[in-house]
Amino acid sequence: MRKSFRSSYEISTFSSQFVDGDTDIQAFDRHGSKPRIVGKSCIKELDYAVIQDTIECQQSGCNSTAILCKSMKQAGDLYERIKGKISVELLNEDTANKTSGVFIMPIYMAKGLLTFSLAS
What we know:
Layout: E1 3-4, H1 9-15, E2 26-27, H2 43-59, E3 64-69, H3 72-82, E4 89-90, E5 101-106
Parallel strand pairs: 1-2, 3-5, 4-5
């Protein structure tokens, strides 16, 4: 059985494009905004876009926002660049139990994007 229990249909569908092999994912019956990939020509523009999107999420009522990076180094670098501009926390293995706020973390710490159970 392959079922995503935490992610919305849109997140599960979007994420499946990054998984190797045939993925027949059954998404949880919850819907939300479709994820998007944003590209900018320089780090300053990308940081500004991250800050603006985060502010929009907060203004729309989101209690928790995760900013996902490829690695802990990239997460730490982003945190250092934007920490004075918005209220944000860098999550690591020791602080991963927080549930509300704006968090920067590496993708491998993001729980619930896709959950796979292989049938035997």
